Input
Amino acid sequence: MKLLLTLLIIALSANATSFSKSKKILLKKIYPDNQNTFYCNNPYEIKIIKGKEKTLIIQDEQYYSPRKEFYKSGKPNTRATRVEWEHVMPAHNFGKHLQCWKDGGRKACRKDKTFKTMEADMHNLVPAIGEVNGDRSNYRYGANKVSIGQYGKCEVQVNFKDKRAYVKDDIKGDIARIYFYMSDKYNIRLSKQERKMMEAWNKLDPISEWERIKNKRV
Output
């Protein structure tokens, strides 16, 4: 409990009622003056293409290079150019204890109020490059140091064999505090190993000014 008292993110928050609404609020009201992706710090912008609004990264190799430039079909990998809103604690982690998830996974939980509330919680959502979001999937974070190169100069690594994602030090505290928030608010159990790692990350990377701003806006 002492650790929780040191956290910036509080358990009571005003969130949207759906994941789709949360994404719109985050883009327009929470992140308008901090348009950089979470893992790669890659700047992004909103563009109108063929009458539709798209959130696209500003392509620059100093931040990120695609792991795969093309799909197997030969078409360009569009997820490597767009921004998606990623659940830091994956939906699988916060949904698997619900009956709807046991009945049929995320699809079966679409009408479950508890799941929808957790899915829409903006404290747990960050902007990520689509390819990185897709590769990370529902993998847990790992304690290993990042081996840079999988996504160019972006300091993130996905180990597909071990189903782990490794990240840079200056976002580890953000991740830890989000995990503790989700665990505390929704009674989600963290393993002893995971909790120990998150406690270490919380100390390693103190609360940043942006975390304070985002929390206040949410």
Notes: The first strand starts at residue 44 and ends at 49. Strands lie at 44-49, 52-57, 83-87, 125-129, 140-141, 156-159, 164-167.
